[in-house]
Write a structure and sequence with these properties.
Distance between the termini: 44 Å
Oligomer: single chain
Shape: globular
Low-confidence stretches: 61-65
Mean pLDDT: 86
Number of helices: 12
Structural class: mainly alpha
C-alpha cells in the first residue's frame, strides 16, 4: 500500500497526470476537428509537458533546478531529463511549420518561468497574468498545433475551438487559484485575491456558459461536438459549484486535472461506438 501511495504521489508531483490531461485535450481536438492523430506530435506534447511543467514547478530559478536539495526532487529531475530527451527525439519527425509554432509555445513557457523584466521575477508574477498565459499555451498546443501539423488552414471553426479551449483551461485553473490563496503572495493579484472566492466562482460559472454557447457559432456543428461540449458544460458547472477554499489534498491536482482525461474517454466512447450517428 505504501508503495502504491508513493507511486501515486510521484505520478502527481512529476507532472505525469497534467501531461496526460494535455494529451487528452490534443486527442479531443483530433476527434472534433477530424484531424488524423500524429504519434510523434503526441509523444512530443506528452513528454515535453512533463519536462516543461517540472522545470516551472521545481526550477523557477535555474540554479535551483541544477543544484537540487533533496533526493526526491533529484528523481523528478532525472525523470524530467529523460522525458526531455524523448521529446527532443520526436521533434525530428515534425514539420518546419509545427516546429516554428512550437518555438512560440516554448518561448511563452520560458517567459512564464524565467525573469524578463526589471524588478519582476517572471511573467507569472505579473498581476493576474498567470492563468491567462497558461490557458493560452494549452489552447495553442492542443488546438492550433495539431491543425498546423497537418497544414490545415486556420478556419473559423478552429478559431472557435481555440477560444473554447482557452476558456476550458481558464475554468480548470480557478480551483487551483482558490486553493493557493493561502500560499500566494498578495503581489500576484490573482483573480480570487482581487475579487474574492464567491465572485471568482460566479466569474467561472459565467465562462462555463460562454464556453458552451460558442459551440453554436461554428459553421459545421456536429452532434458529437454538441454532446461533447454538453457533457463538459455540466461537469465544469458542477466543478464551479463544489469548489471551495479549503480543499482536499488531491481535489485540484488530481480530480480537476482528470476532467480533460474523463472528457477524452467519453468522446472516444461516443466516437467509436456511435460513429455512424455523428
Amino acid at each position: 500500500m505504501k508503495l502504491l501511495i508513493r507511486f501515486f504521489n510521484f505520478y502527481i508531483n512529476a507532472s505525469i497526470h497534467v501531461a496526460l490531461a494535455v494529451l487528452a485535450l490534443l486527442e479531443v481536438t483530433d476527434f472534433l476537428l477530424n484531424i488524423p492523430a500524429d504519434n510523434f506530435l503526441n509523444t512530443f506534447v506528452f513528454f515535453g509537458t512533463i519536462a516543461a511543467y517540472n522545470f516551472v514547478k521545481y526550477g523557477v530559478e535555474a540554479e535551483k533546478y541544477i543544484l537540487v536539495a533533496t533526493r526526491y526532487i533529484k528523481k523528478i529531475q532525472v525523470f524530467s531529463i529523460i522525458c526531455l530527451l524523448i521529446a527532443l527525439y520526436s521533434m525530428f519527425f515534425l514539420s518546419k511549420e509545427t516546429l516554428l509554432f512550437l518555438l512560440v509555445m516554448v518561448a511563452l513557457t520560458g517567459l512564464y518561468a524565467i525573469p524578463v523584466l526589471p524588478h519582476t521575477k517572471n511573467l507569472r508574477n505579473l498581476g493576474g497574468l498567470k492563468v491567462f498565459i497558461v490557458a493560452l499555451v494549452w489552447a495553442g498546443t492542443t488546438v492550433v498545433l495539431p491543425a498546423i501539423a497537418i497544414s490545415k488552414v486556420i478556419l473559423w471553426d478552429i478559431i472557435i475551438e481555440t477560444i473554447q479551449r482557452f476558456l476550458i483551461v481558464l475554468i480548470l485553473l480557478i480551483p487551483f487559484e482558490i486553493r493557493d490563496l493561502a500560499y500566494d503572495s498578495p503581489d500576484l493579484k490573482t483573480i480570487p485575491q482581487r475579487f474574492g472566492v464567491a465572485n471568482t466562482k460566479v466569474f467561472g460559472s459565467f465562462i462555463v456558459v460562454v464556453f458552451f454557447a460558442l459551440t453554436f457559432l461554428k459553421e459545421s456543428i456536429l452532434p458529437l461536438d454538441i454532446i461533447a461540449k454538453g457533457v463538459l458544460f455540466i461537469l465544469l458547472g458542477f466543478c464551479m459549484f463544489i469548489t471551495k477554499r479549503d480543499q482536499k489534498k488531491y481535489y485540484a491536482s488530481f480530480w480537476i486535472e482528470s476532467i480533460p482525461i474523463f472528457w477524452w474517454v467519453v468522446i472516444s466512447i461516443f466516437y467509436y461506438f456511435f460513429n455512424p450517428a455523428f
